[in-house]
Amino acid sequence: MASERGRKPDRDEPGYSSIAGFTDPIDPLHREAMRKGAARRAQARRLAAEDEQEPLHDHPRRPRRTRMQRFRRLVLALFIVFFCVPALLFFAVYWSADIPEPGEVAVEQPAIIYASDGTSVLTKIIPPQGNRVPIPLSDVPIPVRDAVLAAEDRNFYTNPGYSTSGFLRAARDNVLGHDNAGGGSTITQQYVKNAFLSSERTITRKMRELIIAAKMSRQWSKDEILSAYLNTIYYGRGAYGIASAATAYFGKPVPELSLAEGAVLASLIRSPSILDPETHGDQLRTRWEYVLNGMVEMGVLAPGDRDATIFPAIIPASDVPTDTTQLGPEGLVRAQVLAELRAAGFTDTDINTGGLQITTTIDLAAQNGAQAAVRGSTAWQPAELRSAVVSIDPRSGAVRAYYGGEDGLGFDFAQAPLQAGSSFKVFALIAAVRQGIPITRNLDSSPIKDRNTTITNVGNESCGQCSMAEALKRSLNTSFYRLTMTMGDGPNAIASAAHDAGIPEYIPGLDYETLTEAGAPPLNGIVLGQYEVRAIDMASAYATIAADGVYHQPYFVQKVTTSYGEVLLDRGIPEERVGRQPDGPDQRITSGVARAATQAMLPIAAYSNGHALADGRPSAAKTGTTQLGDTKFNKDAWMIGFTPSLSTAVWVGTENPQPLKNGRGADIYGSGLPSDIWKQTMDAALAGTPIEQFDVAPLPEPTPPPAPSRGFDIFNPPTTRRTQPPMIIIPPPPTMPFAPSQPDESPPPTEPSQQEEWFPGIGGNGGR
């Protein structure tokens, strides 16, 4: 068996197989088939393995594209980039563009400020590009219209609103960086650029301009577009719109323009600065001839008329009419109106583009009277003198006259923080009456000591012991200083009375609360007007007294309407009011207290060098003067007074600290130049109006002082006669930006006083 197992089978023997693994004899054909099957299976396994690895080098390469295929792909890409994408953008911008109606386009134009009569122009608010005055197209002569078309767009009435060739030229110039990039615009495109877009030179802006112009041409008529264009475009010399241009170059309204003059204006549109008639007259004439030739080509001008047309005379730039109201006192009124409009919620866009018609509270008679009074009274005075005048209606708070200086673009002295001097004694009287002290109470006017210093009156004037009303008339510092010291919390009581009357707690220019020592409680010197207030504040505070203690917030703007008649603000009768209203009325001081103050003030105007109002018209008033540092000179002088219908404050001073002298070299007091201006202003404003009486009883005749008694009276302490008054040096104020008050309103006596005065916390003599 063993030998048989190790023996190789004979080729001729048939093969065999067994379960044990022995090979049975196999047919040769069958063997060959098995071999081929094994080979196929091996190849399949190899291919499967190769598919799993996916070697790139075994894949077949793509065939190279032909030149025609590459060309077709390039054309397709260019078509998408330069046609499909712009088309999509065009339709997107076209449908998203919101084109307003012709009358709704906001363009800068002047806002007109009127006096209270609603017809007299006081001044204007001119935005940077807003001196345009829109006019209808019917006011523009047809030859002038044709000249503009010949200069800027000869196919205006037939083109679709845009120029494709012009756009392509602009795109080319932008790509190449040419200086004239952006030209070739139609009139519609020029208007769109000025009214809706910027002036940047980019393809994007040019494309938006073209798209909006196309849409506008479908929504607006050609005449509407031309009218808007003529009223918007810049012509040079600061003139926007054809109405302003006609005035700037020919001094006439648009309907009076001739063909030749219209051609000049049309010539200027392309380059106003380059074609300025005073510096580039030859270039302007050449352009003018081009415009006339274009009119001939358009068939709107006969060749014979063209030859007969002569270049017109242009007025010099120095002769161009200017709005002087912006440079005069009315300019300061404009500043107050602007501030009030913004406080009422008006934006700069509202003000600059609304063509607003603003009716103010300014009464023309009062305003002209104030200006004439200042100019007439100061004509022969030193040039350094400055004045402020503010008049307010006590019944409403309406500002009837406002003068802060001659320079409408300069400093406003009606808004300057200044010391009020003895005019502040009125608030001490109100504080005293509030505490139950009547104006008939006798006060001692002898010198008084406070903190080892002595307070006296200018010229050592004294009434002995006289009523509070009499002391107010004579403006006795000692009486009111003593009153302040003996009242309950006197300085704060006076400050409260002044605040209630209308002195604001905070004013521009001060970093702390008014009527305080830089935020600390006020000192006794408050009664002599050592703290800063403004002229408009004093006019308002005295107006509260005139109105029996009812405060009304001062305001300038009465009514505001747009150019098309919409009312934006109205402060008239209650049932017609629109927009934000001023504060008030507010009964801040009881009528009895206010009338007591009025009663005490009634004789002062006549007492102050005879400044009673004309025709015996009753008035209540108070003067005031402040001192220049530690000198014996004055620096501020006041007169403030009222009737039942008008309260006026007048200040006279200088721009820089210096002695306040008149044209004769004499000191100026409140009873002098300020009272002159006050009386003239009041007389002018009230001329022809009913003479109104105050609802107060006349003051009783002064009574002699009571007989001395052994009791001690804090208002009338016993006095001892000094053989020689002490000499006190007046130091300058350590921190105050303005010098303190001057003691007395009356001119100094012929013989100079031997006593100098210094009030604690004042740094100078109290004002009178």
UniProtKB/TrEMBL annotation:
Specify the Glycosyl transferase family domain's residue ranges: 128-295
- Bias kind Pro residues: ranges: 728-737
Domain Penicillin-binding protein transpeptidase stretches: 388-654
List the GO cellular component terms: outer membrane-bounded periplasmic space
Top-level division of the source organism's lineage: Bacteria
Q: Where is the stretch described as Disordered?
A: 1-64, 720-768
Answer whether the UniProt record assigns the keyword Transferase to this protein. yes
Q: Name one GO biological process term.
A: peptidoglycan biosynthetic process
Give TM segment ranges. Answer: 74-95
Residue ranges annotated as compositionally biased, kind Basic and acidic residues, are: 1-14
Q: Which reaction does it catalyse?
A: [GlcNAc-(1->4)-Mur2Ac(oyl-L-Ala-gamma-D-Glu-L-Lys-D-Ala-D-Ala)](n)-di-trans,octa-cis-undecaprenyl diphosphate + beta-D-GlcNAc-(1->4)-Mur2Ac(oyl-L-Ala-gamma-D-Glu-L-Lys-D-Ala-D-Ala)-di-trans,octa-cis-undecaprenyl diphosphate = [GlcNAc-(1->4)-Mur2Ac(oyl-L-Ala-gamma-D-Glu-L-Lys-D-Ala-D-Ala)](n+1)-di-trans,octa-cis-undecaprenyl diphosphate + di-trans,octa-cis-undecaprenyl diphosphate + H(+); Preferential cleavage: (Ac)2-L-Lys-D-Ala-|-D-Ala. Also transpeptidation of peptidyl-alanyl moieties that are N-acyl substituents of D-alanine
Keywords (alphabetical) are: Carboxypeptidase, Glycosyltransferase, Hydrolase, Membrane, Multifunctional enzyme, Protease, Transferase, Transmembrane, Transmembrane helix
Q: Name one GO molecular function term.
A: serine-type D-Ala-D-Ala carboxypeptidase activity
Please give the name of this protein: Penicillin-binding protein
UniProt organism field: Nocardia camponoti
